Amino acid sequence: MQPLFLLPGREKRILQGHRWVFNNEIDGRLPDFEPGSWVEVFSSKRVPLGRGYINPRSLIAVRLVTGPGQEPTREFFSELLRRAEEKRTLLYYPGSTCHRVVFGESDGIPGLIVDRYGDVLVIQVTTLGMARMQSLIQELMVELFRPAAIVCRNDTSVRRLEGLPLEKGLAFGELPEDIRVNIDGLELRVDPLGGQKTGLFLDQRDNRRALLRWIGGKRVLDLFCYTGAWGLAAARGGASRVVGVDASAEAVDQARSNAAANNVADRCEFIRSEALQYLRTLRKGDFDVIVLDPPAFAKTKSALPEAQKGYTDLNRRALLALAPGGLLVTCSCSYHMSEELFARALLQAARAGGRQLRLMESRGQAPDHPVLLAMPETRYLKCWFLEVV
Fold it and tell me: 363 and 229, same structural domain?
């Protein structure tokens, strides 16, 4: 294992628990290291900081995995996977068979996402170092979890930053034709191969539950609804009417099917449309509650100015469609959109719409997407409940 030395003063962030080493923090020639190989990281004073894998072509050159002198053995990774699943099923969501099993650095395995949908596991590998370990990870998951199938969703664009191809497919077992999961009493169908991300968006689970106190007898609009989870939770929780809107025909069809499976089709309508286009058709006061859960508008820091305009316009139009005293549940899953910038966009939206907003709840991602306090990058989701006053 090659040693790697940091420039003077660059170890402070690592000592606090951050798990990344950037390429401008390294003392020496990066091309001398084999992409994807393991290195032992030392401070400029030769103090060992930990071991991880390196990609000289990436801005994030090293992702630390173990502590100083700790070997990244098969047993080491087996224990990390076992512990991660145990936390979910015993502590976060007792008895759960649908959750995120591994959330990258927050669970000690950078570059790896694992979601569980009953007997089906979906893995996503985002880094070169983890790609070289993918076979081992799959073997360990078969041993530990005995899944019926493992699906690889290595089709996320961030892989290009690591020089990795985009691909997806069945890695193990046989995929059931009809995969359904139960989340807080809501039955949802999952398409691990054809759906967005890994099949479902699990990070809003607790936020959907929190919505229930606000929607009794209310008219609810669920924008960017995907397969309908927000809207269906509202309907099950007592909403008088639910409209879900998504640009994907497949998602809308699935949302309708999910509504029927949960016996709420009589109160749910799902429409294929772009969100802004649909909002332009509404009158003032058409809805009592509006949920805005869009995809990431700012995937890079350079995209922030345009993203902020997008958030402002979307929320302004949503506010115009809300009845007085209504509730806006608005979200951003862009890490680069800080809480300060998000608040600024919402204030601009409120001012343009002639509304005042009162923050009732400031929420984030579900506990199976844990935040590593030393790594702000692991905290990405903002979900704010705002009362229109």
Answer: yes
Domain check: are 53 and 174 in the same one? no
DSSP conformational letter for 338: -
Boundary-marking domain end, from 15, 47, 66: 66
Clarify whether residues 324 and 340 are in a common domain: yes
174 with 254, same domain: the answer is: no
List C-alpha distances in Å: 209 to 85, 98, 185, 205.
22, 15, 11, 7
Closest CA to 20 of 79, 134, 105: 105
Can you tell me the distance from the alpha carbon of 218 to that of 40, in angstroms, rounded to the nearest whole number? 57
Does 210 share its domain with 293? yes
**Average pLDDT for residues 215-242, to the nearest whole number?**
97
Query: Which 8-state DSSP code applies to residue 186?
Result: E
* Angle CA 140–144–149, to nearest 5: 80
Select the more confidently predicted residue: 315 or 299: 315
Residue of 151, 144, 156 lying closest to 173 (CA atoms)? 151
- pLDDT band for 289, please (50, 70, 90 cuts): very high
CATH number for 262: 3.40.50.150
Active-site residue (options: 98, 331, 333, 383): 333
Q: Is 333 a catalytic residue?
A: yes
Q: Helices 304-321 and 339-352 sit at what angle, rounded to 10 degrees? A: 40
Q: Residue 252 contacts by C-beta under 8 Å, 6 or more apart in sequence?
A: 225, 244, 246, 270, 271, 272
Q: Helix (H, G, I), strand (E, B), or coil: what is residue 118?
A: coil
332 and 249 part of one domain? yes
Mark whether 364 and 296 lie in a shared domain. yes
Tell how strand 38-42 and strand 2-6 pair up: parallel
The DSSP element (H or E) to which 251 belongs, if any, is: helix 249-261
Beta strand ranges found along 23-148 (DSSP E): 26-27, 38-42, 48-54, 60-66, 98-103, 112-117, 120-125
47 and 172 together in one domain? no
pLDDT on residue 297: 82
Q: Strand ranges (DSSP E) for 67-178?
A: 98-103, 112-117, 120-125, 149-154, 167-173
Q: Domain of 90: which CATH number?
A: 3.30.750.80
- The whole domain housing 346 covers 201-388
Of all residues in the chain, the percent with pLDDT exceeding 90 is 93
Taking each continuous run of H as one helix and of E as one strand, the counts in the chain are 10, 20
pTM > 0.70:
yes
CA distance 99 to 24: 36
